[in-house]
Every structure is written in C-alpha cells, then in structure tokens.
Amino acid sequence: MGVHNIKSKEDFEQTLHKHRAVAVDFYATWYTPCKAIAPAFVECSEQDRFKDVRFLKVDIDQLPELAADMGVREMPAFKLFLDDKPAGDLVGADKDGLVRLLEKAV
Predict the structure, then answer these.
(1) Which of 22, 24, 73, 102 is 20 to 30 A from 4 (CA-CA)?
(2) Contact 65, 6 (CB under 8 A)
(3) pTM of the predicted model over 0.90
(4) Which region is the signal sequence (predicted)?
C-alpha cells in the first residue's frame, strides 16, 4: 500500500473519513530522529498484517496548523485513528512502540 504524503488539511480529513484505520507520521525533514524512524514506518506500510491501515506522512513545516490541531508538540509523533477517532499515539523513534501502536488496528 505504501505511505501517502498529505498536502492539505482537507486531504487529511478526507482520508480519515474514507478509511477505517489510519496511521499518521508527523515529521520534520530536518530532524534526525524523524529520518531514523522513517524506514520503519514505510516497512510497516508494506507488511501484509497492516494491509488495512492507510499510512500517511504530514510534514509539520508544511502543515503547522494541522500539526497543532492534532496536538503535536514533539517529533516524531505517530497517531492512529480508527473509525475517524483517535485510537493511540506514540512520540519518539521507537520501532517496537510503533508496531504495538499499529497492532491496535488489526
């Protein structure tokens, strides 16, 4: 399925409404921990057990209002939504924690 880059708040909201399970990586291109965990997020998006999860990336420098609306204060920040509602989050470059978060969707 892969990871989809969100370009607007409207795009983000439409995706939440359209998919039952959505995992979001709020990141900054210049921040080393975000760069370090990015391959793990992509790897998870390609795993069969997470095939029903829509994976999104939101660059907080391009969409600062969306990041603020979602309560992002530290990065990397991962948020899971189920049926358009928050279902969990994780702050930090923790691959095992990311997998545990995503397992809530399956």
Answers:
(1) 73
(2) no
(3) yes
(4) none
CA 33 vs CA 18, 59, 78: distances in Å: 30, 14, 13
Question: Which are the contacts of 102, defined by CB distance < 8 A and separation ≥ 6?
Answer: 23, 44, 50, 53, 80
> The tokens of 28 are what?
């900054």
β pairing state of 77-82 and 85-91: antiparallel
Tell me which residue range forms the domain holding 39. Answer: 3-103
pLDDT tens per residue, range 48-67: 999 999 999 999 999 999 99
Single-letter amino acid, residue 21:
A
**C-alpha count within 13 angstroms, C-beta hemisphere, residue 101:** 27
Q: How far apart are CA 43 and CA 91, in angstroms?
A: 18
CATH for 8: 3.40.30.10
